[in-house]
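Appendix B, Record 12. Input sequence as logged:
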Amino acid sequence: MLYLYYANIKKNMVLIITINSFGIAIETIYLAAFMLYAAKDARIFTFKVLVLFNFGAMGVAVGLTYMLLDGHLRITIVGWICAIFSICVFAAPLSIMRKVIRTKSVKYMPFTLSLALTLSAIVWLQYGLLIHDYYVAMPNVLGFIFGMAQMILYAIYKKTPSRTRGVLQQQHPPQPTIDSKNGDDITVTVDDMNEAVEMMQLESTAKGGGENDEGSHIRNNDDDIITTAA
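Logged structural output:
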């Protein structure tokens, strides 16, 4: 929304007006869907953020710059405001990158989103340089850096087992369930057999004992082990 205001006061920036108008329409649809299906607390929090930033901060910025400033000074101040907010948007994925490093899992950071961020930053950086508008180009330098960093993290951790998953498996290992039929046959079923075998292999390797007989026995059987009582 701020870039719409910036494009209007600078003139001859039809592309920025068009792209940002389309972006506002898409974001409005997204927010409407979120407000429709989100939990009550999430809806209240989102509404407060919208009022505070989209209407409060935007209204103050537009009102003060329109009434108190004029000409080139107004363009400069509004340009800096737009650049600062854009940098904040590009810096937002830092928390996700930290989570990826901590958990060693990329499920929180889709590759397509990182790729789109990088390509968008490259295009807008080139456009800003071509029209000599550094308030458009400058934030996209940071966007390009963060986009590349996300894709590098994805390449590093895409095949790495999740640390959180490993911790949860150690704290809550799969437990067998035993069903008895007629007092004669006892059926023992272990959920997620492959994960259980991997855990035992890791434990035996850590102890220097290699792969134990129990792990080999379980791996060579089916997921369901049927033991017939004598």
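The CA atoms of residues 182 and 229 lie 11 Å apart.
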